[in-house]
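Quarterly update from the structural biology core.
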Amino acid sequence: MAFVIRDSTEADVAAIQAIYAWHVINGLASFEEVAPDVPEMARRRADVLARGLPYLVAEEDGVVVGYTYAAPYRARSAYRYAVENSVYVRNGTARHGLGRALLTELIARCERLGLRQIVAVIGDSANAASIGLHAALGFRMVGVLKDIGFKHGRWVDSVLMQRSIGGEGLPDAAARGALGSSS
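Predicted structure, tokenized:
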């Protein structure tokens, strides 16, 4: 599979929505039960970009086959150096290195922004592919919220994984300014 990782554009939103909708309808990676429409996905993407955070796609032969982004982990200002990542690939493209390439680039972009922690909230403790992907890229297991969601007629866990980036110590002035301190 030959693909290119790049910044997303507005033109990618319909493909992003289709990828996500499949996971909402068929899987447990997302705890949404009704797939958001294209305008809602465009709004969500715009919100991520307005915060100066990365929203990337993987493209193969001109077709978007996956995407990833970093969103604020929590709204309160003390969390401003922490983000939550999301990675989704088109149905049928798993196990080709796509998720790994997307997440690797997302981690690098977050580190360049001066962020310090990336949190993965993985739907379903049986989601071995996502758990394995995150573990392979340096995320460590920090907890499991047992039976926290109910989807597709059953109780579903959330797996929490975390990765430190950006070194130790206090954030530099550029990161403090870029990431703001309100909320």
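The two ends are 42 Å apart (CA to CA).
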